[in-house]
Amino acid sequence: MTRHILIADSGSTKTDWALAPSTLNCQPSTTTTQGLNPFHQSRDTILQILHLELLPQMDVNNVNEIYFYGSGVRPELEPVMEQLLREVFPKAETIEAHSDMLGAARAVCDHNEGIASILGTGANSCLYDGEKIVGNTPALGYILGDEGSGAVLGRRFLNALYKGILSNEIKISFETKTGLTMASVIERVYRQPLANRFLSSLSEFIHHHLEDEAVRQLVINNFDEFFQKNIVPYGRPDLPVSFVGSIAWHYQPQLQESAARQGFRLGTVLKSPIDGLLRFHQVLS
After folding, report:
1. What residues does each domain of the chain span?
2. Is 72 helix (H, G, I), strand (E, B) or coil?
3. Which helix (H) or strand (E) holds 54?
4. pLDDT reported for residue 285
5. Pick from 249, 245, 240, 242: nearest CA to 274
6. Residue 49: phi, psi to the nearest 5?
């Protein structure tokens, strides 16, 4: 009888699920639900999402192994998340819950030593020994840290835009395209919730204007700061630095340029860790 594994990659907004046989080269079934975060959500909320959003979309009757990776799965909350999954999947033989950082490391490094990073709305990184995380530079969030992230990229872009560092043509194009002004930007950042998501959403405009050298340099400088403040402290310039996340994926040429000038070698870059995690766990099975 074929064994099946269920893998989840969960952020605050959504969870990507993949169900596949535990052998390589088999096409997985995939679906998406709301994000599951045991740090911010109650037990009942998580169970409701699993029952109402996951089970109706995916045939999970023959799931043997479950590997859940999430942004809110701190070490002390791993047993909590595992127990919740056990209630929904009582027949599963193996259930594990881990942080999204370990998921990223397993996806891009497999069983090899390396430095793994997440560059999306936020940013994070770790030193990985092939089995576990052995070092982590604190990300500190988009106000105190998160260098390299989409939120910080958006913040740096607006700073340069309204302080006259970027051209007036870029400013006119931005305000025409988005309908935003300096006053409405300040309103969105300081008076409305989820400022980090708003700032990160500006990446689409930034990406469309990379032909402007000042914009391109702003992107590279954001990555430079990521390497300098988050990767240099590991003291391992010999290791490749690999990435998951939309910012890393869409800005690969600029990320490559920054890595080279900071003295690092770019490793694997994935938009999502799901495919890498499937390979990791299918090989194990």
Report:
1. 4-92, 148-220
2. coil
3. none
4. 46
5. 245
6. -65, -45
The residue among 156, 140, 173 whose CA lies nearest residue 217 is: 156
Sign of the CA dihedral running 158, 175, 121, 81: positive
Q: Is the dihedral of CA 159, 163, 169, 174 positive or negative?
A: positive
pTM of this prediction?
Answer: 0.85
- Strands 123-128 and 63-70 come out as unpaired
4-92 has which fold? Nucleotidyltransferase; domain 5 (3.30.420)
Give the Å distances, CA to CA, from 64 to 6, 7, 49, 67.
8, 11, 21, 10
Instruction: Say which amino acid occupies 226.
Output: F
Fill in the DSSP letter of residue 44: H
Q: CA–CA separation, 248 vs 237, rounded Å? A: 19
Amino acid at 202: L
In which residue are the tokens 């969105």 written?
188
pLDDT in tens, 80-129: 999 999 999 988 999 999 999 999 999 999 999 999 999 988 899 999 99
Helix residue ranges, H only, 75-167: 78-88, 100-109, 141-144, 150-162
Apex 211 CA angle, 179 and 265, nearest 5: 115
Distance CA(33)–CA(18), nearest Å, equals 11
Architecture of the structural domain at 148-220: Orthogonal Bundle (1.10)
User: In this model, does residue 184 exceed pLDDT 50?
Assistant: yes
